[in-house]
Amino acid sequence: MMKCRQITTYCADGEAIVKEQLLPVTRESDEPVHLESGVINLYPEITYQEIEGFGCAITETSAYLLSGMEEAARKDVLQKFFGKDGSRFHFIRTHIDSCDYSLEEYQAVKDPLQDPELLTFSLERDRRYILPVLKEALDISKESGNGEISVLLSPWSPPYQWKTPPARPKNDAGVYGGPGHERKVDYTTPSRNNGGSLKPEFYGSWAKYLVKYIQAYLDEGIPVTMLTMQNESIAATDWDSCVWTAEEQKKFLKEFLYPEMKRAGLAEQVGIYIWDHNKERVLEWALDMIDAETAEMIQGIAFHWYSGDHFEAIQLTHEKFPDKVLMLTECCGLHAPGQGSFWESMGLPKTKTPMHAEADDAGEYAHDIIGNLNAGMNRWIDWNLCVDETGGPRHIPNGFTASCIVESRSARLNMTYYYVKHFSHYILPGARRIGMSRCDQKTEVTAVKNPDGSVAVVALNRGNEDAFYAFRVEGCCVRFGVPAGTISTLVLEQ
Questions:
Q1: What percent of the chain has a predicted confidence (pLDDT) above 70?
Q2: DSSP letters of 94-154?
């Protein structure tokens, strides 16, 4: 007879309360009635994509904040994210040169026009904060028994000397510089910020630069296994950014980046990921980029969550390219810690309390993870590991929140951390999503079979009413409840 335990996270006055209980398991043949109502069916023998793990980003901002903490406090935070008893994260994303979550703009070669051979290339900036914290996270993961971590590198902008001046943005989202977020931009001078594009005559130079960066990280002992070609490929943001068309990026990949990686012996070691932007156009970009020639060059497709659910787009992309890894590489709540919404940063009235905003963030995270997993996602990476109480520090205004807030050199975990842990701690690398059917849509559900044979089911109830169900799985029945406004993970083991 199998055993079942249920782990549930409640929100009480903004604080997470986690409760665990054993649930009775009965044989269906012993049930006094034929179960028809309130049933969720699980089919462990029907399997879908492999789920390879979860992770977060260590930006310069996060690394700077962690570096300022006492050693014991810093290690405690890293244990909570990368330790075996914590979130069990197996992926880390960080940036090539500066990004919006850097303390200032910087690049590894100050003036590549004066140094076309990149002889002055240096990781001096990365050695201040990012590399020491990365190494500490790697050590903690390994020492705790969580295992090896894989690192993703993503560029936000090439050196500005190689770019065209910014063009006026066409983004329709305020956070990206669209309506309601107007800015003063010099449209005559190349910049790391505000978009602009890489000049074709520097495609080869930029490929060499990226390869040099990867090699430098590998030389530091950082296990880089992934590279996205461009963060937010079509966004002209008021932070570090570069705008591409799919045609341009495809040419860069075929004629410059992939050949350069092959020459350096990196093509088999470091997988290349395309898009790395919002979900609403992920399929179109993949269709434009992947053909018989480029298919072997592209390991996967990366995407962000900022344009809404679009789970169908993820499913369609998975169906069209079943051999490609689908990886969410960024998500965050679009408001600063202590604020109820993004619009408060623009002086508009408060719409909700910070406590309710954090609870809503957690629910949105879980909703998105479930939807993406059920659509075919393989890997999931959160944005900043931590930010301060202003959502920074960073070199541009209007910071955003994270699951860990550093205040006065001490860390506070909010609801999002605990909700994500319901997935990352119990869905083990190598798990397979399994078939299921549910009786209603009151509770969002995803289910997997882990490599150790256990079945993990995550159930999210964002409604105002408690929900009650019975699992049917392999001739057994498990009755359970999902209280209103909670998330549960049920682990079924033989």
A1: 97
A2: EEES--TTSSS---SSS-TTT-TT-TT---HHHHHTHHHHHHHHHHHHHHTT----EEEEE
